[in-house]
Amino acid sequence: MGPTQAQSTLIRFGVFEANLQGGELRRNGAKVRLQELPFRVLALLLSRPGEVISRDEFRQALWPPDVFVDFDRGISSAVKRLRDALGDSPDNPIFIETIEKRGYRWIGPMHVAAETVAAVQIPVPVSAPAPSRSLGLRSLAFALPLVVLGFAIWLWYSGSRHASAKSAAMTAVGGTHKPANPEAEEFYLKGRYFWNKRTPESLNQAVDAFTQAIVHDPSYSEAYVGLADCYNLLREFSAMPEAEAYSRAYAAAQKAVELDDQSSEAHASLAFAMFFGRAERANGVKEFRRAIALNPANAQAHHWFATALMGLTRYDDALAEIEQARKLDPNSSSILADKGEILLLAGHTDEAVQLLTQLETSEPGFVSPHRYLKYHYFNTGNYPNYLAEFKQEAVAAHDEAMQAMEKAVAAGYTKSGKRGLLEALLAEQLRLYERGKSLAYQVAESEALVGNKAEALRYLDAAMKSHDGLLMYLNVDPAFAGLRDDPVFQQMAAKAEQTAR
Q1: Where does the pLDDT of residue 279 fall: very low under 50, low under 70, confident under 90, or very high at 90 and above?
Q2: What's CA 199's distance to the chain center, in Å?
Q3: Is the C-alpha dihedral spanning 170, 174, 179, 182 positive or negative?
Q4: What is the pLDDT of residues 227-266, one digit of tens each?
Q5: Which pairs count as long-range contacts for 232-237, CB under 8 Å and 24+ apart, including other chains?
Q6: Best exposed site among 14, 257, 433, 441 by fewest CB in 10 Å?
Q7: Distances from the Cα of 383 to the Cαs of 5, 219, 255, in angstroms?
């Protein structure tokens, strides 16, 4: 056996603490019985959070090269025993996600114990590659001092909730699951506090808090709702790929509904994942209506239903829903921003631009106003303003890939004007698409804009096969104006329209 370096001897996640040097797992301070092989699986997963570890990598890390056993069975058994020890489920994972035909990935938030940051030794087979990835990903600690954070959460709990009357209305419906202990509720409230801030950092902090609430109370449906809501937004406010975010959101929302079918919030979260992530438009609309029927004062259900109606080009209905959401939660910046987007698509351009400009001035770090104005300026050919909003969006999103794209597109525009901008945008979209960071639909848009009709249709076909959520906009997307008379495009547009209904 040879050594490899780890970042810390103590790693905490939820109510668990893994002592990598001592080979011990504890829950709330009590030692959990776990054999050596599943513990080494845990150590490997914790060394590379957020990264898919293949079964072959597990084989190399867990067994010396001269050992011949049924590796697949051994890996599956070790992961199962680890999940049993953590109380984790393969269907609704909190910590370990199965990536079909590939391997496993650690998705749970984790904290490196500050008092033990010195490197330690973890025994692994001599032939195994030494994991060297930083434990920084998803290991976000709460940044505010506890007293200040507690006061802020109290302000949110007593001030924000009354706007939508969630607490009272949920109780009236009879579907609220009371947490099993105060710790679970405390983590839930922290999660909602961070979720409402809607920044990449705060959403990851919210994931952390909701996860810990679930660990303290596995039947806490509202915590699963919170987890689903985080993933529903992380694909917009961070670099998390849509497919990954929506699959996690859908699983968490399904679990929430399973635990409490009378929860308006659970049905709203499930509706969002269905409608936007799985292209189940009719079922999504049905779930939104059920959420509102269960609790007409659920501002978030009205808000998200408005964005769904916008996707169906039912702009008058969308504006009515977003106004209802505004009445229920008048202080919500996200509702106000999405109202601006609906106004843009509905043709109320001056009102929309004024609203979004005021919002980005008052909250320059808020992503949505920059994003919506960026698309508006692009579609109207105002490229200097488009680039300015693009830059601010990339900075606000803390997205390095987006920042690199903005710089490349700006350079293309400086060099060759509109044509240079479009060609640079296409090159960046293709580069990101190859890395799984961009959607086929987005590449199709760029191909169409530079006049590559055949390639645009090819990528649109790929988008149809992968059920890209953006296909709901195909019939109104100005990027495809040059393809409207093409018979193949018309067939795709008709299919997209049928799916949208």
Answers
A1: confident
A2: 11
A3: positive
A4: 999 998 888 777 677 878 888 899 999 999 999 999 999 9
A5: 232/269, 232/272, 232/273, 232/276, 232/277, 233/195, 233/198, 233/203, 234/200, 234/203, 234/204, 234/207, 236/367, 237/198, 237/199, 237/200, 237/203, 237/367, 237/397
A6: 433
A7: 49, 51, 45
Burial class (CB in 10 A: 0-12, 13-18, 19+), 267: buried
CB contact set of 223 (below 8 Å; sequence gap of 6+): 179, 184, 187, 188, 191, 210, 213, 214, 217
pTM above 0.85, yes or no: no
Distance CA 301, CA 54 (A): 39
Distance CA 373, CA 424 (A): 20
The residues near 389 (Cβ < 8 Å, ≥ 6 apart) are 370, 371, 373, 374, 377
Q: pLDDT tens across 205-225, in order? A: 888 888 888 888 888 999 999
% of the chain exceeding 70 in pLDDT: 83
Closest CA to 500 of 281, 322, 268: 281
Q: Which residues pair with 27 in a beta bridge?
A: 16, 30
